[in-house]
Fold:
Amino acid sequence: MLYSISISCTRPDYAHLFMAFWLAHRWCRCVPDREPSPDPRLLSLGMQIRRHREERGYSLEELAEHSGLSFRGLIYIEHGQRNPSVLTLVDIAVALDVAPGELINHLGEGHAAKRAPQ
Structure:
């Protein structure tokens, strides 16, 4: 089913065009109402990194400088919006002076109990 939106003025200005574009996208649901929730494991990883960062008294800028990562990238990781690679986790762990396992060991705690004994 096709629909069209018409602008009822002789010379459309940008405000009218923007409103028509915005309404079309909202009406078609081409733009989601909200972002999907991050994976709980990524949120947990981000909280672990933040805890270690704050224990050492580092700001995000300082951790970015020590790890060689971008400030914005670290924000995304701490908020669970980015899935960091293994090498990124190693860089963060080295900058925080912790073993890489300390950042991720807690993620598998629930899975170990679910495994059947062999």
